[in-house]
Amino acid sequence: MARRADRRAVIAALVVAYVAAWVLVGLIFDTTTSDLDLFFWPSAQIAAHGHPLLVYSTRVGQYPNANGPLSLIPLTGVVAVADLLGWQDSLRLRAALTLGVFAVFSLLLAVEAVRAVEAGRGRLDHRLPAAAVILLAPPLWMALADFGHVEQPIELWLTLLAVRFLGRGRTVRAGILLGLAGLTRTVALICAVPLILLLLRDHRPKSAAILAGATVATGAAGLLPFYLADHAGLVYSLVTYRGGLPIGGGSLWLLARGISWTGLIQHGDAYLFGGAAILLCAAALWRRPAGACTSPRLYGLLAVAAACIPMLA
Question: Which residues touch 178 (CB under 8 Å, ≥6 apart)?
Fold first, then answer.
């Protein structure tokens, strides 16, 4: 009992130190103006000041808040606290408070990732080092502290949680969690592709339909109030604005700029990376079935599907 209590005390101390590290990053480093400051914080301010359904009225030039509304719920609370403390005009104090609060979701992500490893490989003797692979990953720190995308650990946590529930046969709950992940970032819905294909490969079309239906129903229910209150802002922010973006540097489609089918890529890149995810995952399952929903190969398919977005967007 004493050893278990000591271990819990050590874990609690590490959690506090981890959250404190995020707070210090916000205070010490000059993160300049990030997407948090340009889009997400103004949207959360609109919600905190009594208009939660008008968060998609935020614009910076032609760029809107292109994320789902779920991550704005905790961020709205952060904005309210910042207003009470008088920190709303200090980028560093705002960043420190935000990063400290959202570090909790990074911890939840790490816990779920360790569970995923255990599901595929068996019991882990060293869980803390395994969790550290997630908690200390440079892309995670860059995404939050530099780019200000505080929603990403929530998205990944909900996605892994959905996979775990699907592996336990709780298809409806898995679909709800995938829908919630989509309400955090719409691109998270691409992770439904390998899951649905796996169920179809295992001759479980009913389960595939239930998973897809629960995902779509959750997403639709979450967006409906915003659509009714500001349908033009919602549709532009989450759907149509992408068609007006030029093909820029860092894109595979840079070679297609200025030719006859440039417009197809500008307006249809979502169909391209979605179709690529379907084809690649279907080919992988056809050549080598992934087996159970806890199979390590399934997580490989999730990585392949997700990689199609930055490769083909």
Answer: 158, 159, 162, 188, 189, 191, 192, 195, 211, 214, 215, 218
**Count of CB atoms within 10 A of residue 50's CB?**
7
- Count CB neighbours of 283 within 10 A: 11
Select from 58, 38, 80 the least CA-distant residue to 226: 58
Dump pLDDT digits (tens) for 165-178. Answer: 998 889 999 999 99
Strand, coil or helix: 63? strand
pLDDT in tens, 250-299: 777 777 666 766 777 777 788 888 899 999 999 988 877 655 565 778 88
Question: How far is the C-alpha of 107 from the C-alpha of 116, rounded, in Å?
Answer: 14
What is the amino acid identity at position 92?
A: R
The CA-CA-CA angle for residues 276, 280, 284, to 5°, reads 170
Give me the long-range contacts of 249-255 (CB less than 8 A, separation at least 24). 251/313, 252/311, 252/312, 253/312
Residue 15: closest CA among 113, 103, 74: 103
Q: Across the strands, what pairs with 59? A: 64
Q: How far apart are CA 104 and CA 91, in angstroms?
A: 21
Contact criterion met (CB below 8 Å) for 78 and 101: yes
